[in-house]
Write a structure and sequence with these properties.
Chain A has 12 helices and no strands. Chain A is mainly alpha-helical and 275 residues long. Chain A has a domain of 186 residues: MetI-like fold. The model of chain A has no long low-confidence stretch (mean pLDDT 84). Chain C has 14 helices and no strands. Chain C starts with a helix and ends with a helix. In chain E, the strands form 7 sheets. A 5-stranded mixed sheet of chain E has the order 8-9-10-1-11, with helices on both faces. Chain E has a 4-stranded antiparallel sheet with strand order 4-5-7-6, covered by helices on one side. Classes of the chains: A mainly alpha (275), B alpha/beta (318), C mainly alpha (337), D alpha/beta (338), E alpha+beta (520). Chains in contact: A-B, A-C, A-D, A-E, B-C, B-D, C-D, C-E. The structure holds adenosine-5'-triphosphate (2 copies) and magnesium ion (2 copies). The site of one adenosine-5'-triphosphate (ATP) has 14 residues of chain D, from strand 1 and helix 1.
């Protein structure tokens, strides 16, 4: 533990990542305490006000406080990121482990299905789902999860393949353990590390993708303070009210950056090759 | 009746090689017959890739043998149902070469040692605890070390944990697949000593696989020398080492660097490397490297014959 | 010969994937509630007209019949007719895809040009300033919302500086070069049409950079980690032991080995860029597949949606096939196996 | 004098901290001599070799002085070092598969040394490469030159490594466990080749190994290392017949000898201390059957036992020491903790 | 706001001449650049219902009659004059004699007959209008330049319909290109008209280029070249307008908020004009609580119309009461206006038995700020009377499906009539035969309204028709199947150098390129 902490602190970028992620998590947890205004209350008298002591990040085109919206937006973004990863990760991991461990025909079938989803253009899937079920954050998450899991399948499968013939797994078989036990007690715990690191990076990427979908109007719907939607709504007045687009943009940038730095750091720390 | 009797065992692997998926057949074990008596050790030596591990693994049915018969205490193992086989697994265990790879890095030593007992539903919690702790003592671990993870141990300790795991179910036969090859000499001797002690104590039988001739000779009662999936010589250890018959055995023995600077050696240096088991030479598979090879060697597959009492070799020239 | 067999095999493998994709798309498009016939005819249509059109479009057939018909068409190179543009989907795809392809390829070009040297520098200066700098730079590219970046670039390079054009593939009023590949830069080059070539390149720069931002990050990161692994390998030590100077080792030995996983990733990056082009095309009014797809979905143009999806999937698979083939030629271990 | 090493020490950065890997190594070597370095895994044998070549990982602190043929190479610039590496001194690594670049043909890899250090023309280089291939006993040199490492067997690869190292006829050849990864029969071939080379050239060879058999076969003189320090140095016969340091004695005792069956082997209890947590005093103290108080407090100096034979142990003092306090392996029993 | 100042200052100080030079650079009096974000699906006048198509085919083709400037009265075009029989069934048109198609052949009575029969045969959008009253036997060619059309039944707005894009006259030479699809695939990408412009090139999704027709029979077109450019991103087209690369942006592209911001930009002008567009809210009268007129009335009372017009439309709209837009014939001045009266609303809800509150859902289609803001405001208004309004956004196809199949409570729709006659809107909105797919999205049914509508449609008596329409509006005001929210103004951002552009209230998509000039 101490060792881990020392490793983390020996890399300034990882510390930065950790810091950003912490700030986001804290903002999400204590949004009502941190926010200075309601995130959705419209105040037409004070629209497009520049940043000031009253409105730290200014106000948007209907007079909502951008700072508060961004703070509340962390909740949405974190929720999207976490839920998508939490849906995609187990599906991908289990399928990948089964494919890798079972091999043969099962592997073939699973990997072909994975290929289908992998080569399926995700954004079209998202658009179709939005068209079918209506644009909403939930549907965006569904679409993202549907296109995300194959990555975990691939990663886990390849790491399963690399440990599949390990002697400790062989030993377990020699002891008479059934495949189920081997899969869950021996194979999966030893092959999800790379996928876990990927998942931590993905938290950022999912948020980014969701913002992209919101940007083209498929994601979060108007009153909700989703960053991509905020950015989208204010893009036309980028020059008159720079703050309206800049802060949501920065929020996305920093969030993704934070998760990336952290994920990269974890990778460097956990990857035995680079020790 | 020998504890283990293996007759004409074959283990062929069909592999898709490379990008193309060309199928090749690797005859890893190609008609091996051996026996192991109770309380005795059979040493199996040979160079890398000659099929030693495959032999061990197919005896345990970790891979399905292609052909042949394996009898444990007279019972045929080949074709046995999964359920019966599970029962039998208590009797035969395996110890692996790599002390780093043979223990699940994410489980504590206690969990590792407890797993076999759980799998076979042996005893209750208290019993298991006691058994594990006594085993730990045997291999020189303190109780509190049981909750450590494998990476916190040295190679020798890990190898002993591997042996302890094999012992939890109190088997009769242990197949030790190069248990000391990855260890430093000073540690290797610890493990060898432990194995010898255990054998005496529990009347264990070993199949001891190694490529190190001196180690094999130290621990074995009988030795089988393998070359390209076949046993080329098998006999009591003294016979094999003192009067080796097969030219391969002789070459092996003479190639061994002896830790004695004063000894003057006359070496038989074999030419070339071990041929690929997927494309073995015709006739006697050794003829391509054999200093004694003649024309017939390329044609006749030499049978394993009793050339001297209790001393079998597969060569037409002895 | 080996290579041919390999490619043949891979092409065969595409078939189940494409069937899977077609089923998936078909299923999804058919869960979208709405009546394409009504969309075509608009709110002012007569019920008889609607019915006739639906019959005509085969919308009254059971789903599996529709699917079978569709697949039957595909094998004759017929992707059906777009209900929106009322042209064969194939024609539409030929019209829209070169733009996307050109943009994506250009972005890949930038990606390689920037990503690989950055990755190499980063790896060879691990944990030093240059490394930290390139890593942060790459990460910002990855983390920057493409649409935002696009807008900022437009604001700066188009409005403020006025050095680069703002939208479309050519200057207003300029007519495109003779259609050969549909990629304006290539066609202009082939026909020696220099003004058009210049304009086409200028128009590619901003969307290209925007699209490449993410992939540069991906490639830089992968190059870095792959180079780090390679730099620790024994043969690098051998090269140093021979007395080879650092640059010779870096570029002569390490890079070629380190580039392998990067090449694999390149296929993925290409797919990513294809997907990302939807957003970038929107910002830069780039008349490509992304725009076409958005339109197709907005108008329940199922044949078009199917067509685009299949095309993007095929492109993705083919690029990955090319990547694997490249791999095959670069790595002698695969050739001789 | 071919090589003089004075007080060489090395610290490496690990997880943000420097830890001492090598401490105060001093030894010398004559032209044509083969010096063996033995010791347990992790004791710093490879690091010693890499320190000599100055091919250390980044953030390494290397101290002391190294003189090659009287030239203090330890102070050389990168440029100058590149000139001597592969030229005056070469190195062969343990794993012949991973030590060759998988993407270059064998010919190109051998030729590289020639490009770097000689002014030979293309044709001359090719001729030299062919000559080298033949010299290391490889058949079909003409074809081999265009093959890739993966097409060759382990023994052939190791011969290629030797050819690379020999390309510029170095004065010093450092071999880091050159046969460990090989099969016995192939190992015998390579050792034979090494001995041939030794006979034919005046090259000094440093042979790193943990196999006492190999030491006995090829070395003239041996250095025994333990936990980053030299504990004993002696001519090969002297070392086997008259080992002084308890560690050396233990090491020799734990080797199963031909003719010795199912007997208890000697062994050394405990494990090697890790670089981060070296004990004060003698590093072997915790495992030593003869441990005394002084061992745990004061680091023993190298003591001359006889001409060419020295050891770092408190059991001995200058001259002949307390005559053979520890003699045979039988005293170093206690195999296991139980 | 200081960024704004700074940037303007920066631009100003950067190069006062620079800006001028730049605009000079992009100024070309011969070329008109028009930006829209909507692609053109196809060019067949009979096959498309898209405004972007109308805009260009209106320039490629001529019609019997047309709408000039801001007028919504049909004026002669190809038909220099016409007579209508007293029973309103027979129309005789006299064609101009110098009109020529772009291939040089004259525009004759045969072409007229050909065009209308094809419209009906093709059976798409255009047929929706014409097949009710004419079929292929309706035509009688009297001579080359005279044609008589006999309606199946009287249809008062007939002349008005002829001025729509569906009434464009196509060169019968199209027949040579027929194939088996009535030339649909050919005409989707080509034009065979006689209008002031010819199609020069069309890069789908990018630019459509029109060139002046040098042999145009009418007044020579002013613009030599017209580029219709597809720029999907509104902010990009805005930038390009500022740069002078674009002369005019489609009035649907930029939201009122941003237009507000653009007003002060130098060189840019926002053209404002009345339109017949109405934004309205159908309430499903066949479903749940909304089936009760009291509830609908209550809702009508709970909307703060003034605030809505002010904050959502930024004042650029007028409140309306009925389906007939202000300014159109038949508009009722007297229909009841519901005032913003929460007490009354609560009272009505109580009477209807919804004291304890009510939950309803409003469906809107995506990507329109005005609609989503309207819904938001509505939501907060209704909350005050205890009605919870959930907003659901749908993609346009899904939305269309939902509201035409009656699964909605509320919808929110914008609508512009194709021809300036109350018959158009009212028939669609109120006739029982139009329920659902016919776009009677309230599923409103009132037999009195039905018969009034039918009578007015078949009558030629303008006074009677007007009376009927007013009556219908009054009835509907009482029963409130729809809440008519606003009649917004059309605002088109353009360069100040654009002269002569008039927005027609009915055809707000129409840009008379052939009459527009550019003067610096
Ligand atoms: N599962 C398998 N699939 C395909 N080929 C295999 C498999 N297992 C072993 N082989 C092949 O069978 C041959 C014998 O392998 P085996 O591992 O039994 O040799 P070994 O004598 O144990 O060698 P080593 O000393 O290297 O452990 C080798 O050529 C090997 O490549
Ligand atoms: N790159 C490195 N960074 C930090 N410490 C290292 C590095 N490489 C090796 N070490 C440490 O240096 C010590 C000496 O390692 P070295 O490789 O020289 O041992 P060795 O005697 O060659 O062992 P072996 O017989 O296993 O090859 C070990 O404790 C090892 O953990
Ligand atoms: Mg083995
Ligand atoms: Mg080493």
């Amino acid at each position: 533990m101490v060792e881990l902490a020392r490793r983390i602190f020996s890399s300034p970028l990882t510390v930065l990542g950790l810091f950003i992620v912490l700030v986001i998590v804290i903002s999400a947890a204590f949004a009502p305490l941190i926010a200075t205004h309601s995130p959705t209350e419209v105040d037409l008298l004070s629209k497009l006000e520049a940043p000031s002591a009253e409105h730290y990040f200014g106000t948007d085109e209907v007079g909502r406080d951008i700072f508060s919206r961004i703070i509340y937006g962390t909740r949405i973004s974190l929720r999207i990121g976490l839920l998508v990863v939490l849906i995609a990760f187990p599906i991908g991991t289990i399928l990948g482990a089964i494919a890798g461990y079972a091999g043969g025909r099962i592997d073939q079938v699973i990997m072909r299905i994975t290929d289908v989803f992998l080569s399926f253009p995700g954004i079209i899937l998202a658009m179709s789902i939005a068209a079918a079920l209506g644009p909403s954050i939930e549907n965006v998450m569904l679409a993202l999860a549907a296109t995300w899991w194959p990555w975990y399948t691939r990663i886990v499968r390849s790491s399963v393949l690399s440990i599949k013939h390990s002697e400790f797994i062989e030993a377990s078989r020699a002891l008479g353990a059934n495949p189920f036990r081997i899969l869950f007690k021996e194979v999966i715990p030893n092959s999800i590390a790379p996928a876990t690191i990927q998942a931590s990076l993905d938290l950022g990427f999912v948020i980014l993708s969701a913002a992209g979908l919101s940007f083209i109007g498929l994601g979060a719907q108007p009153p909700s303070p989703e960053w991509g939607a905020m950015l989208s709504n204010s893009r036309e007045i980028l020059r008159e009210a720079w703050w309206a687009a800049t802060f949501p943009g920065l929020a996305i940038l920093l969030t993704v950056l934070g998760f990336n730095l952290l994920g990269d750091g974890l990778n460097d720390i956990l990857d035995p090759k680079q020790r | 009746m020998p504890l283990l009797e293996v007759t004409n065992l074959k283990q062929h692997f069909t592999t898709k090689k490379g990008f193309m998926g060309d199928k090749t057949v690797v005859k890893a074990v190609d008609g091996v017959s051996i026996t192991i008596d109770e309380g005795k050790t059979l040493g199996v030596v040979g160079e890398s890739g000659c099929g030693k591990s495959s032999l061990g693994r197919s005896i345990l049915r970790l891979v399905e043998p292609t052909e042949g018969s394996i009898k444990f205490e007279g019972k045929e193992i080949v074709g046995m149902s999964a359920k019966e086989m599970k029962e039998l697994r208590k009797e035969m265990q395996i110890v692996f070469q790599d002390p780093y790879a043979s223990l699940n890095p994410r489980r504590t030593v206690r969990q590792i040692l407890e797993a076999p007992l759980i799998i076979h539903g042996a005893g209750d919690k208290a019993y298991r605890k006691e058994l594990i702790e006594s085993l730990a003592g045997k291999i020189g671990l303190r109780k509190e070390q049981l909750s450590n993870y494998p990476h916190e141990f040295s190679g020798g300790q890990r190898q002993r944990i591997g042996i302890a795991r094999a012992l939890t179910l109190n088997p009769k036969l242990i197949i030790a697949d190069e248990p000391v090859s990855a260890l430093d000499v000073s540690v290797q001797s610890q493990v060898l000593n432990l194995m010898l002690d255990l054998q005496r104590e529990r009347n264990l039988s070993y199949m001891f696989i190694s490529h190190d001739l001196s180690v094999v000779q130290h621990i074995s009662d009988k030795v089988a020398v393998m070359y390209l999936g076949k046993v080329v010589e098998i006999a009591d250890v003294a016979k094999v080492y003192d009067t080796p018959l097969h030219p391969y055995t002789r070459a092996l023995l003479s190639a061994l660097p002896v830790p004695d600077p004063t000894r003057i050696k006359s070496r038989i240096i074999l030419q070339g490397d071990l041929p690929s088991p997927s494309n073995p030479p015709s006739g006697c598979t050794f003829h391509t490297r054999c200093p004694m090879a003649t024309k017939e060697c390329a044609e006749i597959v030499p049978p394993l014959e009793e050339k001297a009492p209790g001393h079998f070799a597969a060569c037409i020239h002895v | 010969m080996h290579a041919l067999r390999f490619i043949g095999k891979r092409l065969l493998l595409m078939i189940p994937i494409l069937i899977g994709i077609s089923i998936l798309t078909f299923a999804i498009s058919n869960t979208i509630p709405g009546d394409p016939a009504r969309l075509i005819l608009g709110p002012k249509a007569t019920p008889e007209g609607l019915e006739a059109l639906r019959e005509d479009m085969g919308l009254n057939d059971p789903l599996y019949v529709q699917y079978a018909k569709y697949m039957g068409g595909i094998f004759q190179g017929d992707l059906g007719e777009s209900t929106y543009s009322q042209r064969p989907v194939m024609d539409d795809l030929l019209r829209y895809s070169p733009a996307t392809f050109e943009l994506t390829l250009f972005a890949m070009f930038i990606t390689l040009l920037v990503g690989i040297p950055f990755g190499v520098i980063s790896a060879s200066r691990k944990d030093r300033i240059a490394d930290q700098f390139t890593r942060v730079f790459a990460l910002i590219g990855v983390a920057m919302p493409a649409f935002w970046l696009g807008l900022l670039l437009l604001l700066f390079f188009y409005l403020k500086l006025g050095v680069l054009p703002g939208s479309g593939r050519l200057d207003g009023g300029m007519s495109p070069p003779e259609y050969i590949t549909g990629m304006y830069t290539v066609d202009a080059l082939l026909t020696g049409n220099w003004p058009v070539f210049y304009a086409a390149v200028m128009h590619l720069i901003l969307p290209g950079i925007t699209l490449a931002a993410v992939t540069v990050g991906m490639i830089t990161r992968m190059t870095r980690s792959s180079m780090l692994t390679v730099l620790q390998s024994d043969y690098i030590r051998t090269a140093f032991a021979k007395g080879a100077p650092e640059n010779r080792v870096l570029y002569g030995h390490a890079l070629r080995n380190g580039i392998m996983p990067v090449i694999t990733l390149l296929g993925m990056a290409f797919g990513h860029a294809l997907g990302g082009s939807v957003l970038v095309e929107a910002v830069f009014s780039w008349p490509g597949l992304g725009q076409y797809a958005v339109n197709a979905i907005n108008y329940l143009d199922f044949p078009a949606v199917m067509g685009v999806t299949m095309l993007i999937a095929i492109m993705f698979i083919i690029v990955n096939l090319i990547v694997d083939t490249l791999y095959f030629f670069i790595d002698p271990r695969l050739k001789h196996n | 004098m071919l090589l003089e090493v004075h007080n060489m020490s090395l610290a490496l950065k690990r997880a943000g901290r420097y830890s001492k890997i090598l401490e105060d190594l001093s030894f010398t070597m004559e032209q044509g001599e083969t010096l063996g370095i033995v010791g347990e895994s992790g004791c710093g044998k490879s690091m010693t070799a890499l320190s000599l070549m100055q091919l250390l990982p980044e953030k390494a602190r290397l101290g002391g002085e190294v003189k090659l043929q009287g030239e203090a190479i330890s102070g050389y610039s990168k440029r100058k070092l590149e000139k001597i590496r592969g030229n005056q001194m070469s190195m062969i690594f343990q794993d012949p598969l991973t030590s060759l670049n998988p993407l270059q043909t064998v010919g190109v890899q051998i030729e590289e040394s020639l490009i770097l250090h000689t002014k030979k023309s293309k044709g001359e280089r090719r001729a030299r490469v062919l000559q080298l291939l033949k010299a290391v006993g490889l058949p079909r040199a003409e074809e081999l030159i265009d093959e890739y490492p993966h097409q060759l067997s382990g023994g052939m690869r190791q011969r290629i490594m030797i050819a690379i190292a020999m390309a510029c006829e170095p004065q010093l050849l450092i071999c880091d466990e050159p046969t460990t990864a090989l099969d016995v029969t192939v190992q015998a071939q390579i050792l034979e080749l090494m001995n041939d080379i030794k006979r034919q050239t005046q090259m000094g060879i440093i042979m790193i190994t943990h196999d006492m058999g190999v030491v006995a076969e090829v070395c003239d003189r041996v250095i025994v290392m333990y936990a980053g320090k030299i504990v004993e140095e002696a001519p090969v016969v002297e070392l086997f017949e008259n080992p002084k340091h308890p560690y050396t004695q233990g090491l020799l005792a734990s080797i199963p000898k031909l003719g010795q069956r199912k007997e208890k082997l000697g062994s050394i209890p405990g494990t090697v201390p890790t670089p981060g947590s070296m004990p004060v005093g003698c590093r072997f103290a915790d495992r030593c059957p003869h441990v005394m108080d002084i061992c745990r407090n004061v680091t023993p100096e190298m003591i001359r036992i006889k001409e060419g034979h020295q050891t770092a142990c408190w059991l001995y003092d200058e001259k002949e020491g307390k005559a053979d306090a520890a003699a045979g392996s039988h005293e170093l029993e206690t195999a296991l903790h139980n | 706001q200081n960024y704004n100042e700074e940037s303007e200052g920066a631009e100003g100080t950067d190069s006062p001449e620079g800006t001028a030079a730049e605009s000079n650079e992009n100024f070309d009096a011969e070329v008109f650049n028009f930006a829209t974000n909507q692609d053109i699906p196809g060019l067949d006048p009979h096959g498309s219902a898209a405004n972007t198509t109308f805009r260009v085919i209106y320039e490629f083709y001529d019609r019997l009659v047309t709408y000039e400037g801001t007028s919504t009265d049909p004026t002669p075009m190809l038909a220099k004059e016409w007579e209508v029989s007293d029973d309103g069934l027979e129309y005789t048109f006299h064609l101009v004699e110098d009109a020529k198609f772009h291939d040089g052949s004259p525009v004759t009575a045969e072409a007229v007959q050909y065009s209308f029969t094809r419209a009906i045969d093709v059976g798409k959008s255009a047929a929706g209008i014409f097949s009710k009253v004419i079929d292929k036997d309706s035509f009688e060619i009297i001579d080359d330049y005279t044609i008589k059309i006999t309606l199946k039944e009287p249809f008062a707005p007939f002349i008005s319909t002829l001025g729509t894009a569906f009434g464009n006259i196509i060169n019968p030479a199209l027949e040579e290109n027929h194939g088996d699809d009535l030339g649909e695939s050919f005409l989707a990408e080509a034009e065979m008209g006689s209008g002031p412009y010819v199609l020069e090139s069309w890069d789908r999704g990018e630019t459509l280029v029109m060139k002046a027709n040098p042999d145009y029979w009418g007044e020579a077109p002013t613009m030599e070249t017209v580029n219709i450019r597809f720029i999907t991103e509104a902010s990009t087209s805005r930038l390009m307008l500022e740069k002078g690369e674009i002369d005019l942006i489609d009035n649907t592209v930029i939201s009122p908020e941003v237009l507000e911001q653009m007003k002060d930009t130098e060189g840019i002008e926002i053209l404002e004009a009345d339109s017949y567009q109405i934004d309205y809210m159908p309430m499903n009268t066949e479903k749940g609580a909304l089936a009760d007129p009291k509830v609908r009335q209550a809702i009508a009372h709970s909307i703060n119309y003034d605030a809505l017009l002010e904050s959502v439309y930024l004042g650029q709209a007028e409140r309306i009461v009925g389906a007939v837009p202000k300014g159109m014939f038949g508009f009722s001045e007297e229909a009841k206006l519901y005032d913003y009266d929460l007490d009354k609303a609560k009272q009505l809800l109580k009477e209807a038995g919804h004291e304890s509150g009510l939950t309803l859902e409003i469906a809107i289609s995506e990507d329109n700020e005005v609609r989503s803001n309207t819904a938001l405001l509505l939501q907060s208004d209704l909350e005050k009377v205890g009605v919870t309004l959930n907003i659901k956004t749908y993609a346009w196809p899904t939305f269309l499906d939902l509201v035409t199949s009656g699964k909605h409570d509320f919808g929110l729709v914008s609508w512009t009539p194709d021809y300036p006659d109350p018959d158009y809107n009212l028939w669609y909105f109120a006739h029982s035969s139009s329920k659902g797919p016919g776009f009677n999205l309230a599923f409103y049914e009132n037999s009195e309204v039905d018969s009034l509508l039918e009578e007015a449609r078949t009558s030629t008596d303008e006074a009677l028709r007007e009376k009927n329409y007013v009556e219908i509006q009054n009835i509907m005001a009482e029963e409130v199947p729809y809440i008519f929210v606003a009649q917004p103004k059309v605002q088109a951002p353009m360069r100040t150098w654009v002269k002569g552009y008039e927005l027609n209230p009915m055809n707000s998509w129409y840009v008379p390129f052939h009459k527009i000039t550019k003067e610096e």
